[in-house]
Amino acid sequence: MNIVITKIEKMSNKKPKIRLYLDDQINSGTVFLIEGNQGHYLVNVMRVKLGDYVIIFNGFDGEWLAEITKVGKGKAKITLREKVSEQKSDPDLWYLFAPIKKARIDYMVQKATEIGVSRIIPVLTERTNLDKIKFDKLLVNAIEAAEQSGRMTVPQIDDLLQLDKVLKDWPENRGLIFCDEAGDAIPMQEIKKSFDKWAVLIGPEGGFSPQEREFIRAHQNTVAITLGPRILRADTAAVAALSLWQSFLGDWAQ
Amino acid sequence: MNIVITKIEKMSNKKPKIRLYLDDQINSGTVFLIEGNQGHYLVNVMRVKLGDYVIIFNGFDGEWLAEITKVGKGKAKITLREKVSEQKSDPDLWYLFAPIKKARIDYMVQKATEIGVSRIIPVLTERTNLDKIKFDKLLVNAIEAAEQSGRMTVPQIDDLLQLDKVLKDWPENRGLIFCDEAGDAIPMQEIKKSFDKWAVLIGPEGGFSPQEREFIRAHQNTVAITLGPRILRADTAAVAALSLWQSFLGDWAQ
Fold first, then answer.
1. Cα–Cα distance between A18 and A190 in angstroms, integer?
2. What pLDDT, in 10s, does the model give residues A69-86?
3. Residues of A in contact with B244 (CB under 8 A)
4. Scanning A82, A235, B128, B218, which has its CA 20 to 30 A from the CA of B108?
């Protein structure tokens, strides 16, 4: 413990600000080569020097201090030193959305990760005009957002799935919240049905088709909620609905 | 009333989708020339034809049907026909934010308008790197967002103000919610202080300076709230905080 305390004192009792996700096993003394996006970030953006410290997490083993032990062109070597935080999980919340345009997809993934979802599922709906997504790009967005937001986990990202297939295979114990403008949709705080777990579904710009709406509403796990009397864009509705879920059913209410 | 019913029947009992804000008096028979952004939207984007109907609102007199009575290059003439909705107000909520980059400012104004604020005040803080804003551009964004979201009002947009000046002249009966990461910040649903009216203050990316935080906290009208254990970007925090306010204190809970 002494080594850790000395290091933290050296940093004026503050945790390093740079956080990096590694999809790997973490042990004291292990050396990692950081390159690609993360290497660029470390060397060119944050301009780390030998002896600087960063925080490493892998989604399972908490947070670890790692020392910069080599700096190169757009890459660096780090040596794992000590564990400094126990693993903290994020809420078990699935987020389903209908992707429209590339810029919006990156945004949706970033925001959902910050707010704290565990799984992101892009769904194809009748009004979706995209037939494929760049999975790798979405994962990079999720990792960066997880690093910046202080999360110790990275949400699982699914490949594009047909909405009707997702609903057909839907797990019994998970409620599905979707935003609807019909008269019987309720405010999120009035949700009475209690499921073990939850998901939030955000439709495409322009909404679901009438048939899709019927199909979604007919599913026994769905709960229709209203987000007030004004019309929200899909990206606004996403952040609003996810934030409300965190406040009422997630970890924002402490 | 017969003329209105016939017109609505002609439109299959559906209200026109196109909504335009006019900063003017509204009376049956008045003719308006629609040009600029709105003219371009009508003629080039929505491709309106003679005899089409649009909805007009001015923030005071409800919604009115107006008929397209002339179509030109990027502009059109409309003739006001009949009132179809009584004026509906939007919640009295002030939204203060620290502008950073142009794209984000347009976004902040658009989202705040959709979610339903009555006044938008850009504030200069120590960490704001902008010293002026394009007021006209913000107003155009607010008007477009009001038109698209179904609002019958457009939020008031202030010019850039110094945060300390805003706080010095703060009205006694209005609470000021701000997002803080300190230990004693409470979830929005636990706000006990009751003010007649409210405002939400979103700090710049990177937060307030320590002196600013002390200054804000010292004000008798401020309430510090937390938005969960993860760090949110300023634009995420804005939509989250405004959505939560609408749910707990605004008109989302019906």
1. 40
2. 999 999 999 999 999 999
3. 243-244, 247
4. B218
